[in-house]
Design goal:
Radius of gyration: 23 Å
Number of strands: 25
Number of helices: 18
Largest sheet: 8 strands, mixed
Structural class: alpha/beta
Shape: globular
């Protein structure tokens, strides 16, 4: 890795556009809409957001309005979402976030937030759904002599951001490994209906484009130099609940291989972000499966370790999001990894056509599931946004197998993750095949609603809530409406009881 970011800029004309973050922030004006790269703590700008935030605070101190709309790839980090939220200068945000400051402002009604499937973002940008994009801010690991942009650890919507924006500012980050060059796969133009062509990916590691992002060089108004690492949050060590969840999924894989419904190397794996999902991947290190493949949004520690151990032969993602230790393993092994990891725009990683064709095994986390298999992955108590749906819907609806995982209880048992009716619907019963908690697994394939209810209650619910759930279901059956029995006056009473008392349990 090169300490001097200026050495990463090989294009003479763009080198002449190097400026400070404060100078570049002068291009950002009140009311603008910005496309900012960043996907799950990778590939986001590190210096410019702080400069924009300081500009906003100065304007507010003068009694002037200053707020921007921002569309990212997914979540960024405190140096981006965090500083902008603290400066109260975000008016609109999409499509996914995880910063506490942004989240609190959304739930306080101060930021208009659009939660959406990540596979839809670039298409809606292309259609002009968000109006004009005034500026795109892109993180890069370098710029070639002919002006092509070498992406960093995440691409997200960067390809479309460069095309859609009137002006472009690039942050070149010397903290990123120079050997990232060549790991990316970008098709400049996917086309629009009715002339869009099929995406010719028939295997998880098919390369179909260029290693570089491209942009009209006249649009680039500034280049900012940085030397800062990505978010690189540490994952919690797998706890007993996570290990139990992982073991059940791995046992299921073995069963499906024996039944002839899965090949011996399974099918390409997708794993959502989080400790439980990462624990499933970690569990595969000792599982009897080799030559695994990954086709996912975010490549985390567990998948990296599978590749380094020789258990996984290749993986495709749109971002690399590692703990500090895993980042060190990545950099130490990057020569080995260069022909085993491929990073693409999220329009490809999350494309329903490709997901369905490859037969992805999708594994994602949930906040709660109801007794019929509907899943809430975004809202706490039905009204407060947590992070967003991200790509879980893209994979769930189109996956060969779709798993949702969670511990059976939260808040020291005060919240059951299995409830009579979810307080917010993100994934309907029609898309969810498997619910897994540390208590057990419910295989919902080929089951009617009432059959699903018995499986979910008896296999997945915590014993402390099982009688309460069975009592609700039995009384709902007697109340009529026997396809999907519910008592509407009680269906959300568990959530109401928690809001009022801090506990879902009936005392």
């Amino acid at each position: 890795m090169t300490a001097n970011a200026a050495e990463r800029i090989k294009h003479e004309g763009l080198r002449a556009k190097i400026m400070s973050a404060e100078q570049a922030a002068e291009f950002v004006q009140n009311g603008m809409t910005l496309a900012i790269t960043g996907f799950t703590g990778a590939g986001y700008p590190k210096a410019l957001p702080t400069a924009i935030a300081e500009r906003a605070k100065a304007a507010h101190a003068r009694g002037e309005a200053f707020a921007i709309g921002m569309i990212t790839g997914a979540s960024t980090a405190p140096e981006c979402d965090g500083v902008l939220a603290a400066a109260n200068c975000v008016s609109f945000r999409n499509p996914f976030q995880s910063d506490p400051g942004i989240r609190n402002s959304i739930n306080a009604g101060n930021i208009a937030y659009q939660d959406m499937h990540l596979s839809h973002v670039e298409q809606q940008m292309r259609q002009g759904f968000y109006g004009n994009f005034d500026i795109a801010i892109i993180e890069a690991s370098g710029i070639t002599a002919d002006g092509k942009i070498i992406p960093a650890m995440g691409i997200g919507h960067g390809n479309e951001a460069l095309k859609a924006a009137k002006k472009v500012i690039i942050e070149v980050n010397a903290a990123q490994n120079e050997k990232l060059e060549g790991m990316h796969d970008v098709v400049y133009d996917i086309g629009v209906p009715p002339h869009r062509q099929p995406i010719p990916i028939t295997g998880p590691f098919d390369r179909i484009g260029s290693p570089y992002l491209e942009c009209d060089l006249d649009k680039i108004v500034g280049v900012v130099l940085t030397n800062s690492g990505d978010r690189n949050s540490k994952f919690a060590d797998p706890d007993d609940n996570s290990k139990r969840i992982a073991a059940q999924i791995i046992d299921f894989f073995s069963h499906e291989v024996k039944a002839g419904r899965l090949p011996k190397n399974l099918l390409p794996l997708q794993s959502g972000v989080g400790n439980v999902a990462n624990a499933v991947l970690a569990g595969l290190l000792d599982a009897p499966f080799d030559d695994l493949t990954g086709y996912t949004e975010v490549l985390q520690d567990g998948m990296l370790d599978l590749i380094i151990a020789g258990k996984m032969k290749s993986a495709s993602a749109t971002a690399l999001s590692f703990s500090p230790d895993a980042l060190q393993r990545f950099n130490d092994n990057i020569e080995f990894l260069r022909d085993k990891i491929i990073l693409r725009p999220m329009e490809y990683t999350n494309n329903p056509e490709v997901i369905r064709r490859l037969g992805i095994i999708g594994m994602n986390a949930m906040i709660e599931a109801d007794i019929y298999g509907n899943v809430n992955s975004t809202h706490v108590m039905g009204t407060k946004m947590m992070n967003g749906i991200g790509g879980s819907g893209d994979f769930t609806r189109n996956a060969f197998f779709s798993f949702f995982v969670s511990p059976s209880v939260a808040k020291d048992g005060a919240i059951s993750c299995i409830v009579p009716m979810v307080s917010h619907h993100d994934h309907t019963e029609h898309d969810v095949m498997f619910i897994v908690t540390e208590q057990g697994m419910a295989d919902l394939r080929g089951k009617s609603p009432r059959q699903r209810a018995k499986l979910i209650i008896n296999n997945c619910a915590h014993p402390e809530y099982r009688d309460q759930l069975n009592d609700y279901f039995d009384r709902a059956e007697k109340a009529g409406g026997l396809h999907t029995p519910h008592i509407l006056s009680e269906a959300l009473s568990w959530h109401q009881r928690f809001v009022e008392t801090g506990d879902m349990r009936i005392k």
